[in-house]
Amino acid sequence: MPQEPLSIEDVPGPDGQRLLRLNGPITIANFFELQSLIRGNTSRRLVLDLTHVPYIDSAGIGALVGAYVNHSKEGRSLALAGVTQRVRDALHVTRVEQFFDFIQA
Fold first, then answer.
1. Spatial contact of 48 and 71, defined as CB atoms under 8 Å apart
2. Distance of CA 90 to the CA centre of its chain
3. Residue 2 within any structural domain of the chain
4. The domain containing residue 17 runs over which residues?
5. Do the Cβ atoms of 43 and 76 come closer than 8 Å?
6. Which of 14, 48, 71, 88 supports an S-S bond with 78, CB 3.0-4.6 Å?
7. How many distinct structural domains can be found in the chain?
8. CATH number for the domain harbouring residue 65
9. Cα separation of 23 and 77, whole Å?
10. Quick one: how far is CA 84 from the chain centroid?
């Protein structure tokens, strides 16, 4: 079965904020570009819009946790917007939900 792609739209936001709009699942087969964009981010606040992310696997969750850790230790913030119930449930089951700031998309 072919892997579904993850498309990423990089949108500069107001006041040093950066928005990454994601479309597609976040899986081990496709999260490398996202991980690279997150690691290279220098904005004060990064918002990941997950409105069009139908599911996330453990590698994707690991990428989000890594982003949280990097942003926290550098005094920057990370927020998740538009999180679907399925993705939120995956974050809850893996006990990482408490690390993230959830906002409306």
1. no
2. 13
3. no
4. 7-103
5. yes
6. 71
7. 1
8. 3.30.750.24
9. 22
10. 12
Give the relative orientation of helices 58-73 and 32-39 as an angle to the nearest 10 degrees. 0
3-27 residue pLDDT tens: 789 999 998 878 889 999 999 999 9
Write the single-letter amino acid at 97: E
Task: Calculate ∠ Cα 20-6-8, nearest 5°.
Answer: 25
Per-residue pLDDT of 39-91, as tens digits, reads 998 899 999 999 999 999 999 999 999 999 999 998 999 999 999 999 999 99
Name the token pair of 81. Answer: 């917007």
Tell me how far apart the alpha carbons of residues 36 and 9 are, in angstroms, rounded to a whole number. Answer: 14
Distance of CA 14 to the CA centre of its chain: 19
**Token couple for 44:** 């004060």
Instruction: Report the C-alpha gap between 93 and 31 in whole angstroms.
Output: 20
The answer to whether 81 and 105 are in contact (CB under 8 A) is yes
